[in-house]
Amino acid sequence: xxxxxxxxxxxxxxxxxxxxxxxxxxxxxxxxxxxxxxxxxxxxxxxxxxxxxxxxxxxxxxxxxxxxxxxxxxxxxxxxxxxxxxxxxxxxxxxxxxxxxxxxxxxxxxxxxxxxxxxxxxxxxxxxxxxxxxxxxxxxxxxxxxxxxxxxxxxxxxxxxxxxxxxxxxxxxxxxxxxxxxxxxxxxxxxxxxxxxxxxxxxxxxxxxxxxxxxxxxxxxxxxxxxxxxxxxxxxxxxxxxxxxxxxxxxxxxxxxxxxxxxxxxxxxxxxxxxxxxxxxxxxxxxxxxxxxxxxxxxxxxxxxxxxxxxxxxxxxxxxxxxxxxxxxxxxxxxxxxxxxxxxxxxxxxxxxxxxxxxxxxxxxxxxxxxxxxxxxxxxxxxxxxxxxxxxxxxxxxxxxxxxxxxxxxxxxxxxxxxxxxxxxxxxxxxxxxxxxxxxxxxxxxxxxxxxxxxxxxxxxxxxxxxxxxxxxxxxxxxxxxxxxxxxxxxxxxxxxxxxxxxxxxx
Amino acid sequence: xxxxxxxxxxxxxxxxxxxxxxxxxxxxxxxxxxxxxxxxxxxxxxxxxxxxxxxxxxxxxxxxxxxxxxxxxxxxxxxxxxxxxxxxxxxxxxxxxxxxxxxxxxxxxxxxxxxxxxxxxxxxxxxxxxxxxxxxx
Lengths: 507, 137
What we know:
The complex is a heterodimer of chains A (about 500) and B (about 140).
Chain A: H1 2-23, H2 31-59, H3 65-84, H4 103-129, H5 135-151, H6 173-185, H7 191-215, H8 218-229, H9 232-240, H10 244-259, H11 269-283, H12 288-308, H13 310-337, H14 343-346, H15 350-357, H16 360-376, H17 397-407, H18 416-439, H19 444-470, H20 480-483
Helix pairs in contact in A: 1-2, 1-3, 1-6, 1-11, 2-6, 2-7, 4-8, 4-9, 5-6, 7-8, 7-9, 7-10, 7-19, 8-19, 10-11, 10-12, 10-19, 11-12, 11-13, 12-13, 12-18, 16-19, 18-19
Chain B: H1 2-20, H2 30-39, E1 50-55, H3 59-67, H4 73-85, E2 89-90, E3 98-102, H5 112-115, E4 118-125, E5 128-133
Parallel strand pairs in B: 1-2, 1-3
Antiparallel strand pairs in B: 3-5, 4-5
Helix pairs in contact in B: 2-4, 3-4
């Protein structure tokens, strides 16, 4: 059973990691780059495998899934092999390794490792306490996985079952990731959903750390990951087996990849395509992901248009959407032909909406909830019987604000528009969430109490990324790879009008 | 330094909470307990199709009480019954030929079963009963 489970994970992980190297070849040049490709690629691979599993179910060939998975992994491997056989001259400046580690960085890495072990232990203890996960896990995600797996050829029946309370309109990335592993194993296994949750929780941590190691410095990476590990709600939600952390992972992957063009002369189309894949996988994970895809596209286009003009904006947005399109088509098919109407849309009518839009008490209640939850959500689940309470705890947005105050702000000039883009996307997401609450047909208090803390958690890793991207590094100076001149073997930047170097990706 | 100390405190505090609750695991997990109870029904149910569901309170109150944040237990019990019995669909209604009775929180109001013409088929103990609905569905 265990070997079969591992066999179910290996092809998607390999596919994802190979795709990351294929689209961002320069990641292979540094340890941080390789770590980034490993973490981002692994999650993307699981997402893509879930899409493949869905297509196999639709085509009625789900028994051939292992062969298809293997063929896809093999194709990605061959594509990588061919791409890496290209002359090295085509590849632009490799990322230099960060400077020799200081004593501070070594101590930080040690503390980080201890915290990582403690967090993994907390996760395992939470799993032992609640092996089926919490409320939404067995009410939605794992239940959908069971229906799909146990339903066999009649897997579609559940979507027309009328069991609206289980939200059958929710996308299928997580249920299918679980169900496909059970298919490989030939039967259900209780730890599989928990292992999937473990993978996404720790991939998010690893990705945050690797992204900052790559784009800023090792110490920033470790500190940021420590803040995320110190967020009790992050580990609790991970062990709860909800889809909010996989969504947080794909949001973080998108925003980190969208920062890559800042370090590239040619706009890094490979990273933009991968960012598009990640953003579309958000919409295959949860309905909020559709909002994110929309907002990320708007943010990318708007900020690039403002900073680089229309041509560049169209080019970058096209690359992003090209990556998003295949997954988006699957989501559209699912929404149009399989999923029942969403509960928020089912209760929609224009008269009620206009009444809500001009009900200022609703705005005040939502703003109050945003404030209280914004400060308190890191501490854990809200007891619905008690309601929202101010509880900042040890790690919260206040800690990040204090850190920024003491560490100071240092933004690399090249990063500025891209960090503005990240900030704009996160703010637009918050605004989108705000107006969904304004318009919700559900009872407002009930809706806020049962969901707002999870919505904030979805954005939390990306907020930490943004804060540590703009904060001064503890070493007090910019990392070497940000300001260092290009290594001597690098060709000089071509003058305008000259032919650009091939494959000019530089994260 | 402040950041390191606070994050370390938060991480260790969470671990300590987990360790403290270790002796009572997993015997207290309500999902595991409920699933073991409901599993007994499986041999008596068809492999697919739909069954009904009744509990201590009227069916329409299961969701109403949860929405009013008064009592989430009835919805949890219903959802866990569905979670265990999937892919058999468990409808929140007594109007089906086979009906699962889940009375872990006590019996229904007097006359409720008679009103819906529910006749016990098998009593599994611990408040779990499988009913047959008499007459036309």
